[in-house]
Amino acid sequence: MKTTDGPDQTSPRRRRRPRGAAPATAPPEIRLSGDATVRGMAIGPVMLVLESPAPDIDAAARTDNPEHELERLGEAIERSVRQIERLRDRLAILPEDGQIEIGSLLEVYRRMLGPSRLQRGIHERIVRDGRTAELAVREETESLAQALLRDGAEIGGEDAAAAQRRAGEFREIGQRLVRNLGRTPFRSFSAMPAGTVLVAEQLRPADAALIDPSRIVAVATEEGGSTDHTAIMLRALGIPTVLAAHGLTAHARDGATMVVDGTTGHVVIDPSAETLEAARRGVADHARERQALGRLRRLPARLSSGEKLQLQANLELPAELPLIAQSGASGIGLLRTEFLFMNAATMPDEDRQAAIYAEIIGTMAGDTTTIRVVDWGGEKHSEALERAGLSQEGDTINPALGMRGLRLLLRYPAVLETQFAAILKASVAGPVRVMLPMVTVVPELREAREIYHRVARRLRRKGVQLGDTLPPLGIMVETPAAAIMGDALAQEAEFLAIGTNDLTMYTLAVDRGSAEVAPLYHPLHPAVLRLIQAATEAALRQYRPISLCGEIAGDPRVVPLLIGLGLRSFSMTASAVPRVKKVVRALSFEDCRRLAHRVMEASDVAEVTGLIDDFAAGT
Fold first, then answer.
1. Fewer beta carbons under 10 A from the terminal one: N or C of the chain?
2. Which residue has the higher pLDDT, 502 or 153?
3. What is the spatial distance between Cα 469 and Cα 331, in angstroms, rounded to a whole number?
4. Where is 196: in which H helix or E strand?
5. In a 10 Å sphere around its CB, with 0-12 CB exposed, 13-18 middle and 19+ buried, how is residue 458 labelled?
6. Residues involved in catalysis
7. SS3 label, residue 435
8. At CB < 8 A and 24+ separation, what contacts does 57-61 make?
9. How many CA atoms within 13 Å lie on the side-chain side of 544?
10. Domains of the chain: which residue ranges?
11. Does domain 298-385+400-618 have CATH number 3.20.20.60?
């Protein structure tokens, strides 16, 4: 937290004050820093909305009447389901993108309150251990959340953020059940005046359904983070937001003027005249920027020298589809399918998977969707996959080097066959590609291709309508082995996609989840760049499409280097697409090629970073 007392704010026209009277001064300016979550700037009066504390839970409490506790739990579940249904009814007042985003999460909550792993675990704690309903709910939800967080910490990056969101789902449902068990009321936002800045200790994802973006101009909270579900909800609503501004509720007061800068993460309470004037300019600048980026949505991603690029989006959850539509991305370059398995007690069958894939493919309106089959390994846990018989025995010492990705699916091909069949059925909805994770040797790819064609033949024998040509089958390049063997793999794969997150980890032997070595993780390390170059050149020699879908694909500073290395297709978080497009439309290929030539002669990260920064400053 950064707290700064600014200069006194006085009226520009001074009045003579009575002798001996104290000078009239405004409250000192207070500045706080938090997570920049939703871009934009807003100014407005504060409305502080605090929530009554949840009931205390006695960790030593036991019951000798489990039937009564189960009855109380059942009533709390019914009440929670009714509340979620009422929240769904409110979605009609939100923008369409917000309706889809928030509605999808509310559906997740509704399923969790039905027959699920969570509910079974709570029942067991009540019946087996004699826990009270409140204690059983807290222990079970926290146990599931902690398991997910441990898994996420082992991987880092986007998977860690996804694990945090899934853990948050369990905790949110746990808090709702505990409040309903104790009949503790929830807060309301119905009395918010127009033009208000909403300030709270923390917003739960479901609170987003209560926010009217026509009345609330900005959101600032004491807790939370830019990668959690609440942040995703607020991005869908498009409200400038700063989360995790520590000390906020201690300084904020109803009616005080507040500036919220969702681009830098700064919050200013009682801004000085100078700060207020700068903020007004910022509001106007952001409005102009949004208009400019909005116009880019329909323009091609083309270099100034004429070369066409493909900017696609990564998709982790179907709820993120509205953000892809807003971004102007030309398709989905990486659809992660783990969401189907992570919180499920049973395996989604072929028809259910096909329906979900078809809906996503259809939403893309003719743009290609690249579906990666489930990438599951020793660092992740899924009750559905474990019940399906997938064993990771022996992977506890170093899960990153154990049975994971394609090698695990080939050991238990039934899961892969079901997913292949579902994707093939859904392929009639639009263009689709199928991608295999963690391919390291050619025989793995050949075996997977044999399964793929066998599944297609089975479907055709059953009368399922498929296209004359099957969707292309490609691979992720995520290890040094795959990058070095790029020529051989490209002869077998119909397309390649470089995943720089794992490629960096394996190349540098760095676990981002370890605080001791995390600073050594850097995708701009010359060794990583040379592997990217090797894989790209191998694909081009074999006339295979190749893309890059790691975090650096969404960094406008780095994309010129990647273009210079020969890449023309990138997949990134949806929010990064407009800014990357803005940069590339001002670039020439020759400039990118010269940058790449200089960078590939560098021998350390600092030198590489300096060259990239100098190039960005000059464009």
1. N
2. 502
3. 20
4. strand 196-200
5. middle
6. 229, 549
7. strand
8. 57/132, 57/134, 57/135, 57/138, 57/178, 58/132, 58/135, 59/135, 61/131, 61/132, 61/134, 61/135
9. 26
10. 30-51+188-289, 66-182, 298-385+400-618
11. yes
Which range is least confidently modeled, 172-181, 254-263, 456-465?
Answer: 172-181
The answer to whether 132 and 61 have CB atoms below 8 angstroms apart is yes
Domain 66-182 is of which CATH architecture? Answer: Orthogonal Bundle (1.10)
Query: Percent of the chain, pLDDT > 70?
Result: 83
Q: How many CB atoms lie within 10 A of CB 140?
A: 24
Q: Is 512 annotated as a binding residue?
A: yes
CATH architecture of 30-51+188-289: 3-Layer(bba) Sandwich (3.50)
Q: Is 14 annotated as a binding residue?
A: no
Rounded distance between C-alpha atoms, residue 555 and residue 539, angstroms: 23
pLDDT for 223: 87
| CB-based contact 45:195 (threshold 8 Å) | yes
Q: Cα–Cα distance between 235 and 150 in angstroms, integer?
A: 27
pLDDT at 379: 47
Residue 23's pLDDT is 44
3-class secondary-structure state, position 77: helix
Ligand-binding site membership of 65 (annotated) = no
* Confidence band of 459 (pLDDT split at 50, 70, 90): very high
Average pLDDT of the chain? 84
Whether 460 has a binding-site annotation, put simply, is no
- Residue 95 is predicted with a pLDDT of 55
Q: What are phi and psi for residue 326, nearest 5 degrees?
A: -65, -35
In our burial notation (b when 16+ CB lie closer than 10 A, e otherwise), range 323-354 reads bbbbbbbbbbbbbbbbbbbbbbeebbebeebb
Helix (H) or strand (E) holding 302: none
- Give Cα 172 to chain centroid, integer Å: 18
Spatial CA neighbour of 600 closest among 554, 548, 533, 549: 533
Return the closest-CA partner of residue 134 out of 198, 204, 56. 56
In whole angstroms, give the CA distance from residue 82 to residue 222. 29
Which residues lie closer than 8 Å to 220 by C-beta, 6 or more apart?
A: 34, 197, 198, 199, 241, 242, 243, 245, 248, 252, 258, 260, 267
- In angstroms, the CA 482 to CA 499 distance is 11
Calpha distance 225→239 (Å, rounded): 15
| Contact call for residues 324 and 368 (beta carbons, < 8 A) | no
Is 39's pLDDT higher than 90?
Answer: no
Q: What angle do CA 616, 618, 619 make, to 5 degrees?
A: 70
Per-residue model confidence (pLDDT) at position 590 = 95
> What is residue 98's predicted lDDT score, i.e. its pLDDT?
57
